[in-house]
Amino acid sequence: MINGIINVYKEKGYTSHDVVAKLRGILKQKKIGHTGTLDPDARGVLPVCLGNGTKLCDILTDKSKTYRAVLLLGKVTDTQDITGTVLAEKPVTASREEIINTILSFQGTYAQIPPMYSALKVDGKRLYELAREGKEIERQARNVEIHSITVESFNGETNEAVIVVDCSKGTYIRTLCHDIGEKLLCGGCMKELVRIRAGEFEIVKSLKLDEIEAKMRAGVLEEHIIQVPDMFPDYAKVYVKKEFEKKLYNGNSLSISQLEQEMAGLCDMTDKVRVYGGENNFTGIYEYCPAEQIIKPYKMFL
């Protein structure tokens, strides 16, 4: 079984679940999970966890992301993107400067109402399922963080702006486009979306499914798998003394005295460490508790 994380380039037309299903066929293993959905019409970076790397799914989902999107002004749809039913079309009367300034004004924290066409659950049912039934329910606004937003270009003839957005988890770029249009009093929707970064994973290093399949057949895919401990380069690396390895493998807390002597000087370490048993066997991430002089399990990867 392959363990780790692979940086997949999700192509247009695939759901994130489609990518996982195809990878199960290519890699001949079931234990695979993605780290956050991308709409079928969106493309770009989709980190996929393999084997014991699936324990990282929740951690990677929390990472910030960067998108390049095409905002189309003057059109409002029920899905907030170009694939939806057009609800209204309005003239764009704002000047180029007003449009750019309005887009830039969304940098920072703002309260965003999740769209009806989203995978969020309410009373056990996905919002998009309710939307397809013609139902709309009240949604609570959630604070999202737009770390930065830039306007790469604006075409006054087509009323299209290419924007690059670096944002927190849970941010809907479709909704951001909609909200920009609302603020400009002309409406807006998302025409295109590419995720160019998810955490430390960048689009330039991503692989399409057919590339993954070709590398798998050639026996070189392992070169593109990021190992689980490499996802935590800032965490100190510590080893457990041989006589305490059983305690380690049972997932118990460990005292500092049970670590290899040369690794026991932990005063400068971060609050979490990478813990290894014999033969450089990575076991998991532990939390350092200086007051008790112990490390306790945070996430195990046995």
Overview of this protein structure:
The protein folds into 3 domains: about 5-65 and about 200-230, 2-Layer Sandwich (Pseudouridine synthase); about 65-195, Pseudouridine synthase, CATH 3.30.2350.10; about 235-300, PUA domain (Archaeosine Trna-guanine Transglycosylase, Chain: A, domain 4, Roll). Helices cover about 20% and strands about 35% of the residues. The chain contains 7 helices and 18 strands. The protein has helices at about 15-25, 55-60, 95-105, 125-130, 175-185, 210-220, 245-250, and strands at about 5-10, 30-35, 45-50, 65-75, 75, 85-90, 110, 120, 125, 140-155, 160-165, 190-200, 200, 235-240, 255, 270-275, 280-290, 295-300. Strands 1, 2, 3, 4, 7, 10, 11, 12 and 13 form a 9-stranded mixed beta sheet that branches. A 5-stranded mixed beta sheet has the order 14-16-17-18-15. It has a two-stranded antiparallel sheet with strand order 5-6. A hairpin with a 4-residue loop joins strand 17 (about 280-290) and strand 18. The longest helix has 12 residues, at about 15-25. The chain starts with a strand and ends with a strand.
From the structure above, extract its key features.
302 residues, alpha+beta, Pseudouridine synthase, Archaeosine Trna-guanine Transglycosylase, Chain: A, domain 4, 3 domains, 5-stranded mixed β-sheet, 18 strands, 19% helix, elongated, EC 5.4.99.25, PsdUridine_synth_cat_dom_sf, tRNA_psdUridine_synth_TruB, RNA binding, tRNA pseudouridine(55) synthase activity
